């Protein structure tokens, strides 16, 4: 979710009632695999973690969504230093080690899902994070995939994370080689539940309350983590919370969707407006000569591009809106302001909105191979 799932997106999800999730996690902080020549490690880590704000989703004295910090790297001593800074200086309630990213630019540097090739390395990195957070109250967790090229080391990697101090793990039930293609194998989440005596969160292909319930039935996971589904449907957390239940015997049920169309439309428009307001606010801060000629147009192009990035996924889950995607994508930022683009999108949502359907083919899942 790096790039789209940024602070603006998180605030828009949480601020207007479209939320419904227990916790959010910031996009990962890249910790280098080695200390650059002449660099001060303490200063380096401080700079890398500067944009993490534990109170990013605090809206008033009583309304707050906890925000976990996620780090990614391959050098244990630097991971420990980063975890200590995030836990003690930045008050992170949770520090998650990313062992899931499949991108070549990440795995080529020995980070992300590449750690899964060696359970001893997983242990060393998770332990470094746990050592850094020790005594702070911050929970240490790990997100992982089923494996690198296959899932043959899944048991060993799960046990390494637990022994190193992870309080829970989040398992995306695909290998690195799968990328986002095919279907997630939720049976592997069930396998993780059998192996571990710490909580396991299930991840992968949760794009509706029905899919959430199916994952829970198949895996008996302790919770669900999702990303792509929230891009396609900003109400998905709220839908799941309102319709999916599990009783004391572990029986999972899905009730009828309780949202009326008018209610949905207003929440989606509130989401869009909040997202746009965050984009406009953040990028309109004075910055040198930003207000002059070419730079002013670059700023407007940026705003329009951000709105289009939301529309690309939001419309994909709505059969009535999908035919309008091309016309929105073709709006020219040199001729149409970001405010006008937003109004156009709002008009389309009011007229055509439908409850999103399961959508698995999008810009994420088209990146099929990571070889």
Automatic annotation (TrEMBL):
Residues forming the DUS-like FMN-binding domain are 49-247
Q: Which molecular-function annotations from GO does this UniProt entry contain?
A: flavin adenine dinucleotide binding; RNA binding; tRNA-dihydrouridine47 synthase activity
Q: Which Pfam families match?
A: Dus
* Catalysed reaction equations from the record: 5,6-dihydrouridine(47) in tRNA + NADP(+) = uridine(47) in tRNA + NADPH + H(+); 5,6-dihydrouridine(47) in tRNA + NAD(+) = uridine(47) in tRNA + NADH + H(+); a 5,6-dihydrouridine in mRNA + NAD(+) = a uridine in mRNA + NADH + H(+); a 5,6-dihydrouridine in mRNA + NADP(+) = a uridine in mRNA + NADPH + H(+)
Keywords linked to the UniProt accession: Flavoprotein, FMN, NADP, Oxidoreductase, tRNA processing
Q: Which organism is it from?
A: Ostreococcus lucimarinus (strain CCE9901)
Q: Cross-referenced PANTHER family, in alphabetical order?
A: TRNA-DIHYDROURIDINE(47) SYNTHASE [NAD(P)(+)]-LIKE
Q: What class of enzyme is it?
A: oxidoreductase
Q: Which family does it belong to?
A: Belongs to the Dus family. Dus3 subfamily.
Q: What is the lineage of its organism?
A: Eukaryota, Viridiplantae, Chlorophyta, Mamiellophyceae, Mamiellales
Q: What is this protein called?
A: tRNA-dihydrouridine(47) synthase [NAD(P)(+)]
What's the EC number here? Answer: 1.3.1.89
Q: Which cofactor does it need?
A: FMN
| InterPro entries to which the protein is assigned, alphabetical | Aldolase_TIM (IPR013785), DUS-like_FMN-bd (IPR035587), tRNA_hU_synthase_CS (IPR018517)
């Amino acid at each position: 979710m790096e790039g789209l799932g940024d602070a603006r997106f998180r605030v828009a999800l949480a601020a207007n009632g479209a939320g419904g999730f227990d916790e959010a996690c910031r996009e990962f902080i890249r910790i280098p695999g080695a200390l650059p020549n002449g660099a001060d490690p303490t200063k380096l880590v401080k700079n890398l973690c500067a944009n993490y704000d534990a109170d990013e989703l605090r809206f008033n004295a009583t309304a707050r969504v906890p925000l976990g910090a996620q780090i990614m790297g391959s050098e244990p001593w630097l991971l420990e230093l980063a975890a200590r800074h995030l836990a003690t200086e930045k008050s992170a309630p949770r520090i998650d080690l990313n062992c899931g990213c499949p991108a070549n630019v990440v795995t080529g540097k020995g980070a992300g899902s590449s750690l899964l090739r060696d359970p001893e390395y997983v242990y060393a990195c998770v332990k470094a994070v746990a050592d850094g957070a020790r005594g702070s109250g911050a929970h240490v967790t790990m997100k992982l995939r089923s494996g690198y090229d296959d899932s043959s080391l899944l048991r060993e990697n799960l046990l390494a994370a637990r022994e190193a101090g992870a309080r829970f793990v989040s398992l995306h039930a695909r290998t690195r080689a799968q990328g986002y293609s095919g279907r997630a194998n939720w049976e592997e989440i069930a396998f993780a539940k059998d192996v571990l005596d710490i909580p396991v969160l299930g991840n992968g292909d949760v794009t509706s309350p029905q899919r959430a319930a199916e994952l829970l039935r198949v895996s008996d996971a302790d919770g669900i983590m999702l990303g792509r589904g929230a891009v396609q449907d900003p109400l998905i957390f709220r839908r799941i919370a309102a319709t999916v239940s599990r009783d004391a015997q572990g029986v999972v049920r899905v009730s009828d969707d309780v949202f009326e169309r008018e209610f949905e439309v207003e929440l989606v428009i509130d989401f869009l407006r909040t997202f746009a307001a965050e984009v406009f606010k953040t990028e309109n801060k004075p910055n040198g000569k930003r207000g002059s000629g070419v730079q002013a147009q670059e700023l407007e192009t940026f705003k329009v591009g951000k709105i289009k990035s939301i529309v690309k996924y939001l419309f994909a889950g709505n059969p009535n809106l999908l035919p309008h995607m091309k016309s929105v994508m073709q709006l020219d930022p040199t001729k149409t302001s970001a405010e006008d683009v937003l109004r156009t999108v709002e008009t389309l949502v009011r007229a055509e909105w439908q409850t999103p359907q399961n959508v698995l083919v999008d810009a994420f899942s088209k990146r099929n191979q990571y070889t």
